Amino acid sequence: MTSTKSKNAYNKSKSTRTGQNDNSDPSLKDVYSRVTAKIISDLEKGELTWRKPWNSAYMEGNIMRPLRWNGISYTGINTILLWATAAEKEYAQPHWMTFNQAIELKGSVRKGEKGAQIVYADSITKQEEDKNGETVTSKIPFLKTYTVFNASQIDGLPDHFYQLPEKQIEPANLRNETLDKFFAETKADIRQGTKAFYAQHVDYISMPPIESFEDPTLYYSTLAHEITHWSKHPQRLDRDFGRKAYCDQMYAKEELVAELGSCFLGADLGLEPLPEERHAAYIQSWLKVLNDDKRFIFSAASHAQKAVEYIHSLQPQII
């Protein structure tokens, strides 16, 4: 199988500083339920939590990944959590940091400001003897929660933390050379057709001609959605939720991954995701999935992140 490690530095680098660990929080064990409950509540109102930044007028054209204090992007579920918080609180600055990190940068969190909780998934290695007296090693997964603050809530930081992100790519013509090259580098078999879909059994993406879209950006955002599906092929990421029939719950899970993947990729490339009307029919199926499995939004975000990292890894490495 092709390596899923991204060649992009932001996907490979990790912060070397530790944040405030909120393991003392008695509700830590319910972190999955709390996050999922928030997303379910939004879905029941017809809102997609991960789309909120694009619906905020003050962030128009400036959508990007939320950033750590050191400029490294947040990934997976934390992207969704911080996007949603930024949209609700109207934070335009992309940087987030812990209380202690703000102090180290000579900044100070304003009195009364409330931080946002993010999560960190890890595992501990445990060794024990089995019934035959042999040592068996197992990994036990766990979650930590951390509280971070947006630069908008902090005074005294270096000036660059308060600079608004530049407006992202806006294709002026029907074809965008940069985006065409990005998708071409994946070597995906993209064919012109009358509908947009990915056919796994023959491994190709069908896309209507760009002229048939109201806006060229919609063409590329549609392609981002389909190429996230394309990443699931057994010879790539081998993502399989056990789908047996069209429109069953497993199909809904894969569609949620593609939805998140297109949002993550859209933020990286400066593309607004597909209009919400495209996904309105999926909301009920996503509600069922999330109600049945409180951890799936974490899994879906993780799969989407891996898909985007894989797609980025297919680009020529910049030395």
TrEMBL record:
UniProt region (Disordered), positions on chain: 1-28
Signal peptide per UniProt: none
Top-level taxon of origin: Bacteria
GO terms of molecular function: single-stranded DNA binding
One Pfam family, short name: MPTase-PolyVal
Bias type Polar residues, positions: 1-26
Domain N-terminal: 29-149
Coiled coil start-end: none
Residue ranges occupied by any Polyvalent protein metallopeptidase domain in the UniProt entry: 178-303
Listed name of the protein: DUF1738 domain-containing protein
Organism: Dyadobacter frigoris
